[in-house]
Amino acid sequence: MVEKDDWRLLNDVWYLKGQCINPTNGEEVIKYLPHLKHCIFCYDKVNKNRIRWFVPDEKNISCCICEKCFADFCEMFSWRLLDGL
């Protein structure tokens, strides 16, 4: 279980609470969302090698979440996983 004082929560990320999240991969992020350069939580760089990335379904929210941060924060943020982009 992730603690509330986890360093990855230092950014203002609480607007992501309760969001519908789409799974995707690094190649799709680079191709279709090139402005997304890193995970909003841990700042891991988006790359083609990482298999899974996650992006909010809301059109006005522009960020991506790496696989590890998604797993760590999914319950805390009450995310609903969609089928994909």
Provide a descriptive summary of the structure in words.
The protein has 85 residues and is of the alpha+beta class. It has one domain (7-81). It is built from 2 helices and 4 strands, in the order βαββαβ. The protein has helices spanning 26-32, 67-77; strands at 20-24, 53-56, 65-66, 80-81. The longest helix is centred in the C-terminal third of the chain and has 11 residues, at 67-77. The N and C termini lie far apart (28 Å).
Q: Give the tally of structural domains.
A: 1
**Strand order within the widest beta sheet:** 3-2-1-4
SS-based class: alpha+beta
Percent helix range:
10-25%
Radius of gyration, whole Å: 12 Å
Number of H- or I-type helical stretches: 2
The best one-word shape is globular
The sequence of SSEs as H and E is EHEEHE
- Residues in β-strands, percent: 15-25%
Poorly predicted tracts of residues: none
Largest sheet report: 4 strands, mixed
Topology, element by element:
Elements: E1 20-24, H1 26-32, E2 53-56, E3 65-66, H2 67-77, E4 80-81
Parallel strand pairs: 1-4
Antiparallel strand pairs: 1-2, 2-3
Q: Quick summary of this structure?
A:
This protein is α+β, with helices and mostly antiparallel strands and 85 residues long. The chain has helices at 26-32, 67-77; strands at 20-24, 53-56, 65-66, 80-81.
